[in-house]
Amino acid sequence: ELVRQGEALKRTEQMVDKMDQDLKTSQKHIQSIKSVWGGLVNYFKAKPPENKPEQNGAPEYYANSKLKEAMTSSKEQESKYQESHPNLRKLDNADNDFSKADLVSSGQRDSYPRNQQLRAYHQKIDNNLDEMSSGLSRLKNLALGLQTEIEEQDDMLDRLTRKVETLDINIKNTDKKVRQL
């Protein structure tokens, strides 16, 4: 949704830039109509190069790299997450039976109690904590990506606000000049 909003902001900024360009052309024509001298000045004045809206401070919009990486990483981990999530996976009776394959490697066995059932529960708790850690890491990356994207769009909104305010003042001045004609 943020990426879509960023694209909409970019298009809006391009339209405001185009409107500003059109307004400058209108002001030039009004000056030509207003007086012969203004027409001569405009005739001999070098034509301003037509700036494409993309060149006016806002290159083509792309979501920030942090957000893209977080979204890609999240999508890659999504199937693994859904398989391991207790509420999303299909629970079967096999989960309740602990086999020796579910236990930790022999190097880590000493850190668990000798009681097999207790050891299995400890291993299950460790596995759940690992899954929680993985999920929190995924959420952290997404949150950081969203934060960066929001900051970039906030800057874009500030820039757009300044442009719109300037355009509004120029439109009012042009309207005033037209009414004087």
From TrEMBL:
The keyword S-adenosyl-L-methionine does not apply. Residues 89-100 have a biased composition (Basic and acidic residues). It is found in: Cell projection, Cilium membrane; Cytoplasmic vesicle, Autophagosome membrane. It is a peripheral membrane protein. Residues 1-33, 119-181 form the T-SNARE coiled-coil homology domain. Residues 68-110 are annotated as: Disordered. Keywords: Coiled coil. One of its GO terms (cellular component) is ciliary membrane. Residues 143-177 form a coiled coil. SNAREs, soluble N-ethylmaleimide-sensitive factor-attachment protein receptors, are essential proteins for fusion of cellular membranes. SNAREs localized on opposing membranes assemble to form a trans-SNARE complex, an extended, parallel four alpha-helical bundle that drives membrane fusion. SNAP29 is a SNARE involved in autophagy through the direct control of autophagosome membrane fusion with the lysososome membrane. Also plays a role in ciliogenesis by regulating membrane fusions. This is Synaptosomal-associated protein 29. The gene is Snap29.
